[in-house]
Hints:
This protein has helices at residues 7-41, 54-60; strands spanning 44-47, 66-69. It is mainly α. The chain folds into two domains: 1-41; 42-75, no CATH class. It has a two-stranded parallel ribbon with strand order 1-2. Strand 1 (44-47), helix 2 (54-60) and strand 2 form a beta-alpha-beta unit.
Amino acid sequence: MADSSNLPARASQWQAGLKAQRTGKLFLSVIFTFVTANNASAGTLYVPNNYLNIQEAIYASNPGDTIIVASGVYK
């Protein structure tokens, strides 16, 4: 027969390991969210490659974006 006197200790160790695993996953999820949010906010828009005129690029831009305008006359 198995020694049942050690079962509470094993259960406690198992629960502690499960809690640590959940905490680690939560931590990684939070870090991933912040990293991707910062990278997604900055972009570069090109006129006339991506947008036909400067105003379209301005409308499509977000805070932190850069608009690159090729030389020429835009009307």
